[in-house]
Amino acid sequence: MQTELSKELGVEHALFGFTPFPAVAAAISRAGGFGVLGAVRYTAPDDLKRDLDWIEAHVDGRPYGLDVVMPAKKVEGPKNQTLTEADVEAMIPEGHRQFIRDTLAKYGVPELADGEASGWRITGWMEQVARSQLDVAFDYPIKLLANALGSPPADVVQRAHDQGILVAALAGSARHARKHKDAGIDIVVAQGYEAGGHTGEIASMVLTPEVVDAVAPLPVLAAGGIGSGQQMAAALALGAQGVWLGSIWLTTTEAELPSPVLVQKLLAAGSGDTVRSRALTGKPARQLRTEWTDAWDDPHGPGTLPMPLQGLLVAEAVTRIQKYEVEPLLGTPVGQIVGRMNSERSVQAVVDDLTRGFEKAVDRINRIAGRSQQ
């Protein structure tokens, strides 16, 4: 599965795998794809350095990349000063905190032990945190830098280009894609409505060719609802130069999901068991539908807060739900492709299945085309 872009990056398959797990990223690259480590969970630069060191030691010299989250709009204080995490925390209304306390009490979710860390706090949505991640990452031979929320700032794009690193950005519409092109982005990821995490409202079948036409000759990667070789072939037929896959890796044996109960929920879920909700970050993000997302989406509730307030608000609650495996509330970002995620497999097995399916789909189309020319 070779395209001009995959050849430029030196990978066997034009298959880009986004994941928060270093072991999965390295396995994707070893399997002939291009692993992309999500950095948003890293609040301490030393933790990111540790995991990039690990990837370097386990990627067998194959290329890999990094995905950061630098929102197009920053939360700023008076006179446009940059706010600290404590400043942002102070902006959270007490009514929202009480809503969380009431919801957790309703389901009997235990408190964390005294002194126990509240786990992942989504400070990676804040630009200054993302910049600290980049200060670490640019010391490594990454080949791609992706941004999940708009184009990175111009100085970041320039810094990446100065080091020979390609820059990608996700887009949910042709209008967004054109802005990326104008900002000097090298690769546009057309992320359809079906995708897990932050996503727009246009389905992949419509979005991909629109973006391809909008940013030509820039390469486009198709994302959202792709979890089989047939779907990969369809993406290339629509003009994409590769695919961007995220959800499909969540149930691989190399993944490190925090709860066996969560893994089983993913394996049992159908494609209709997800919802676009602001419950996790304040922006619409596709995730498993749970009684937690229902509570936040209830019009009688307080409503969600804008990014990054919502992420900071729910961080401890999400940690408690995961630690104590409170099944009705337990969820994770995941796309509609969850309906195909029915068994735990290795990354290599997933890649093998994808590439075999791609070859069969291409052969089928070639036979059809051959018959039509007779």
TrEMBL record:
Keywords: Flavoprotein, FMN, Monooxygenase, Oxidoreductase. Coiled coil: none annotated. Pfam families: NMO. InterPro entries: Aldolase_TIM, NMO. The keyword Amino-acid biosynthesis does not apply. Its EC number is 1.13.12.-. One of its GO terms (molecular function) is monooxygenase activity. This is Nitronate monooxygenase. It comes from Streptomyces yaanensis.
